[in-house]
Amino acid sequence: MARVDLNVPFAEKDQAKSLGARWDSLAKVWYVPSGVNAELFACWLPSANGSDPEHEPEFGIRSPHYFVLESATDCWKCSRLTRVFSFMLPEQHEQFEYAQDDDEDFALTSNPGYWVCHGYRGTMSSLHGLSRPVINQLRLHTECYKPAYSKTAGVTYYMNHCEHCAAKLGDFYMHSEPGGAFFPTSPTEASGMILHEVNERFDANGGVGYTTDDFMGYMQREGG
Ligand SMILES: [Zn+2]
Q: Hey, CA dihedral for 4, 8, 10, 14, is it positive or negative?
């Protein structure tokens, strides 16, 4: 596979470098070397502002508005309480479903899939791509929710890090265990969470988790 050139602003060069981007000093351009997942660099792809409806979208999850979700957890390493973040998506969010491609008549010109709205609120996890405007909103709250490699999962995704000791705080416990930072099981647990409302479009790649009761009504609300 050929390399992918990026549009990286000077101020963000260190971030791109830490994710694995390389600098071509002759062409004076940052690029994604072959073998590295280009999705992590989605916000710097030249095509980030335009999309062709005939091709698969750059981001598989979208929403007309969203919430930056703030919670807290005890760090496994230093035992101190640290803020942790995710995103909550409203009922209107949509996921891109890929069309079956095992059909003999399937052609590159056919529609690759379609958008589906399931009508549930959801919490993002295993996040591995965010649009530039969403990153900008997230950075108003934290620098500690950022791409990192998970040995457990064997992939790189947006992971929370302890604000005190920088230890990695993986998604699994916080999202999948009842009582985890993003899995409230009572109004009391939910009352410690904060929803920062953002009236802008959301675009990302990752997973969306649903629960029968997310206790959203008990969470604190800010902004909007
Ligand atoms: Zn810590």
A: negative
Q: State in Å: Cα 111 to ligand 1 middle.
A: 47
- Cα 81 to averaged position of ligand 1 atoms, centre (Å): 8
How do the domains of the chain map onto residue ranges?
A: 4-47, 61-223
Q: Strand pairing partners for 123?
A: 88, 209
DSSP-derived pairing of the beta strands 194-198 and 155-161: unpaired
- C-alpha 59 to ligand 1 mean position (Å): 32
Number of Cβ within a 10 Å radius of residue 149: 11
**What is the CA(162)–ligand 1 centre distance, in A?**
5
Q: Is the pLDDT at 109 greater than 60, yes or no? A: no
**165 CA to middle of ligand 1, Å?**
4
CA 122 to centroid of ligand 1, rounded, Å? 27
pLDDT in tens, 61-71: 999 999 999 99
3-state SS assignment for residue 141: coil
